[in-house]
Amino acid sequence: MDVDQRALWSGWLTRTVLPAWSGVGFDRGRRLYHERLTFSGEPLVLPASRLMVQARQISTFCRAALDGLHDASAQALACLEEVERLYRHRDGQAGWIFSVAPDGSPVGTQRDLYAHAFILFAYGWAYRVSGNPDFLAVARQTVVELHQIFAAEHGGFLDEVSLTAPGVTGAVRHQNPHMHLLEAFLVLFEVSGDSFYLDEATALVRLALERLIQPGAGVLPEEFGADWRPVAASGENRVEPGHLFEWSWLLGDYLRLNSGAQDSGAIRQAADGLFAFGMRHGVRSDVQGAAVRDVIADDGRSLENATRIWPQTELCRLLICRNESPEILRGLTEHFFATFIPDSTRAVWIDRFDASGRASVADVPASSLYHIYGAAREFC
Question: Tell me, what is one Gene Ontology molecular-function annotation carried by this entry (predicted)?
Answer without folding.
Answer: mannose-6-phosphate isomerase activity
